[in-house]
Amino acid sequence: MAKQINNQDITDRERVILVSIEPDELMLPYAWEELTALTETAGADVVGEIHQNRDDPDPKTYIGSGKAKELHMSVLDTNADLVIVDGELSSVQARNLEEEVKCRVIDRTQLILDIFAQRAQTREGKVQVTLAQQMYLLPRLGNLYTKFERQQGGIGVRGGAGETKLEADRRKVRDGIKDLEAQLAEIRATRQQQRAQRKRLPFPTAALVGYTSAGKSTLHNTLSGSGVYADPKLFATLDPTTRRVTLPDGWAILLTDTVGFVRNLPTHLVAAFRATLEETIEADFLIHVVDVSHPYMETQMRAVLDVLEDLGAGNKPMVTVFNKCDLVDDHHRLTDLILSTPNSVYISATKGDGIPNLVEHVVTTMEALLKPINVVVPYDKSELVAQCYEYGRVSAAEYLEDGIHVVARITGELVGRIARYEIEPEAATEVAAI
Ligand SMILES: Nc1nc2c(ncn2[C@@H]2O[C@H](COP(=O)(O)OP(=O)(O)O)[C@@H](O)[C@H]2O)c(=O)[nH]1
Ligand SMILES: [Mg+2]
Asked: Quick check: CB of 344 below 6 Å from ligand 1?
């Protein structure tokens, strides 16, 4: 079994200073917004930002030494615990910068890996993230040592005499990677089976997908409010990113917030990222949140749809939400988008504009997923009838001698439990006539 590496870089509510060398002025606000959203997703607070405009990072300290001094002052002023650099650091840069600012320094990749580690739920997801963490570590091992590598072991030690500590460590990590890859292959072989066994809830479920900082978490909060769960036991097993959303007529869906797509995701993190999206495969339908004010909106939408397609979630019903409409002055553009995108709405998650319209679309999408049933449920199984009321839409119910006759539309999961009491439509009229 692989060693589980969980959330090793960031702990709750750490105070973080962000560092960027983004040279493109147009992109800088988006870079800040994204890195902030990622930091908050990891559970930390941003207390400062330091920018240096440069095309290439400084090979020794990432930012120039003058900026590094400024960063050190900023760390002292804000009492920060951690610095996060919006790029990839070599271990030389990380070590030098840490010495300069007297504070822990991590890069964007470590931050993303941290979030993935927090969010991965399935065994496959966890193994996938551990694998990405090991791959990140491997090329950085060399620089963790001084140039005087120690000789390790002697005769009889695996690897033989003369193997340096560095070589031994690299070998250990490589062996670990091989082992994780083997585990993945084995998990994939049995995946279908596991999915079938997983206990599903009778609620319709939806997942929020879209780019980081599109506004998924804001919308998740807006929609779920602080609803009290009807059945605490049922929800005790849910992960904290899933909440119940009560719809206007009293029915509910379960809504999961996902990590979100990341701008310029390092390629070696793609597999781990996909593993965190597994809940979207389980969801009955998707809510695709798009930042309508973003200059690369179309590219981002395309990327999201392509990955969903690859994951086998391409055919799921989807509501497209053009968010942050408060930042768009061109009203025609918004209406054109709505007209050219099926089942779409525009909203402002922060201002609350368009939320009732979105809820209407959610309701219609959910209703289309319910399946019709016509059953006579024996009295000793009457809890099934209660569930029809709670999780579906009951159009008729009648207490008969041998059971409760119910005509309703319910979720696929509940259909599985109740289908054996199904009656023929003709039989139904007979029953009703008695
Ligand atoms: N102007 C504006 N900002 C928004 C809106 N929705 C979200 N934001 C901001 O966008 C940033 C990212 O939002 P967040 O919900 O964390 O995005 P996520 O990464 O998709 O979960 C936050 O600063 C939000 O306050 C909106 O409708 N209008
Ligand atoms: Mg979020």
From this structure: no
H or E stretch including 49? strand 45-51
Q: Look up tokens 């095309």; give the residue.
A: 55
Ligand number nearest to the C-alpha of 214: 1
Strand partners, 209: 288
Establish whether residue 350 lines the binding site of ligand 1, counting it when its CB lies within 6 angstroms of any ligand atom: yes
Take residue 133 and report the two structure tokens written for it. Answer: 């963490």
Q: Give mean pLDDT in consecutive 10-residue pieces for the chain, a chain of 434 residues.
A: 45 88 91 92 93 95 96 96 94 92 93 87 84 88 50 42 72 90 81 54 85 92 66 55 82 85 83 78 91 93 90 92 97 96 97 95 92 94 90 90 93 88 70 52
Ligand 1 pocket member 327 (CB < 6 A): yes
Residue 211 to residues 53, 240, 302, 329: CA-CA distances in angstroms? 25, 20, 11, 22
**C-beta 320 within 6 A of ligand 1:** no
Outline where DSSP puts E strands in 195-282. 205-210, 242-246, 252-257
Query: Ligand 2: distance of its center to the CA of 13 in Å?
Result: 16
Cα–Cα dist 364/158, whole Å: 64
